[in-house]
Amino acid sequence: MLHDRVLVDVDAAASERRSGGGILIPATVQMGRKLSWAKVVAAGPNVRAVETGDRVLFDPEERAEVELHSRTYVLLRERDIHAVASEGDSDGGTGLYL
């Protein structure tokens, strides 16, 4: 990875969601702008806020897809990441740091 680029693996099952009544809403339905979670696979040398293995929140419209070894990943700039999920919620907060 070069510069401030981050390679993430998006969980395909996470893109589907359920309504309050339990109805499954497929990922293909357009319902406004929704951010997505992904796991960081690799990060460039100038990336400061995330590390490999972190879960990050990003806008799916601000991405570039790349296929490596028959698997599709998403390539982002570090500035396109909105939040990083921490492992534990020890301070009673949301578990996110921005």
TrEMBL record:
Record SMART domains: Cpn10 (SM00883)
Residue ranges of the TM segments: none
Gene3D superfamilies per record: GroES chaperonin (2.30.33.40)
Organism whose genome encodes this protein: Tessaracoccus rhinocerotis
Record's signal peptide: none
Annotated protein name in UniProt: Co-chaperone GroES
MF-aspect GO terms: ATP binding; metal ion binding; protein folding chaperone; protein-folding chaperone binding; unfolded protein binding
Keyword Chaperone among record annotations: yes
Chaperone as UniProt keyword: yes
Family: Belongs to the GroES chaperonin family.
